[in-house]
Amino acid sequence: MSPIDGLGSAGARRRVHAVSFLAAGEALAAVRRLRGEGFEVHDVHSPFPVHGMEEALGLPPSRLGRVTLAGGLVGGTIAFAFQAWTHAVDWPLVIGGKSPLALPAQVPVSFELTILFAALATALGLLVRAGLFPRADGRPAAQPHPAVTDDRFVVLVVERDGGFSAARLARVLESLHPVEVVEGWRVL
Known about the structure:
By secondary structure, this protein is α+β, with helices and mostly antiparallel strands. The protein is built from five helices and four strands. It has a four-stranded antiparallel beta sheet with strand order 2-3-1-4, covered by helices on one side. Helix 1 packs antiparallel against helix 5 (166-176) and helix 3 (64-90) packs antiparallel against helix 4.
């Protein structure tokens, strides 16, 4: 069984070519060249984020910032509402002649809860969007290459239709000088 062989719950099985590189720049150039030649690059696995890879893959901008903003607004609202209710309704105390609802005293707690909820929303949003929760069957997610978490950059090229030419892919890959090319099947 190839390292890129994997079973999934939905989708069709497609032939995948896992092209390995040793440098991030080589993988980025390969993605740009392969997409320019009309090949479908399904994904890129790397040991660290590569600047410019999102644009090279043609991915839309992330919506994670919106999740962070929503979490921060919820946290700030909860903090302010709880303090306002506590100081003005449930336990109204006049201290030093100030109003029970003194806004400057509520800023630190509101700020802290805004940051806390924003951070938690960001982490949860990332886990949900990336599907990084434990799998139902208990198996770990399949990696396209064992060294992808250490020093390899793996570009996955998918055969989607009958117009795919393995010979043309081989010619393009010959000019890119990959370390290794592995063919296998994956459910996409």
